[in-house]
Design a protein that fits this description.
Helix content is about 30%, strand content about 35%. By secondary structure, it is α+β, with helices and mostly antiparallel strands. Helix 2 crosses helix 3. The radius of gyration is 16 Å and the shape is elongated.
Length: about 120
């Protein structure tokens, strides 16, 4: 791709079973997910049609379903599995993903990881 155009979704709030403590494994906690994926904005703008753009609604629905139907111990695992899902299931070349667990650390707003992955990460 010639340009650095991206589509982004910011602060997607989902309930997840995530954590290392016994009590965390029994409840759903808020997590925040933000992502950026490459996108050809010129192509989409020229066509002015939904078919010419990246279907971020389907990607987001896929992420939500995946999170709601799986359990995770580490935020790191959570991030890797989401990145892999997006790249493999939605044929996305690369992703920059930020996931956080609000309230996980006293006196901080949230804690999380930021990762960047491409197709070669999951070959």
């Amino acid at each position: 791709m010639l340009n650095g155009d991206k589509i982004y979704v910011e602060d997607l709030r989902v309930k997840a079973t995530i954590g290392i403590f016994d009590w965390e494994k029994k409840i759903k906690q808020d997590v925040s997910i933000s992502y950026e994926i490459p996108h050809d904005n010129v192509k989409a703008a020229k066509a002015d049609a939904i078919e010419a753009t990246t279907d971020y609604k389907s990607i987001t629905k896929g992420i939500i379903s995946f999170v709601e139907n799986n359990k995770f111990e580490l935020v790191e695992t959570f991030a890797e599995k989401i990145a892999e899902l997006v790249i493999k299931d939605f044929n996305i070349d690369e992703i920059r993903l930020r996931v956080s667990k609000p309230g996980a650390l006293r006196f901080s707003k949230d804690v999380g990881v930021i990762i960047e992955r491409d197709k070669s990460s999951y070959e």
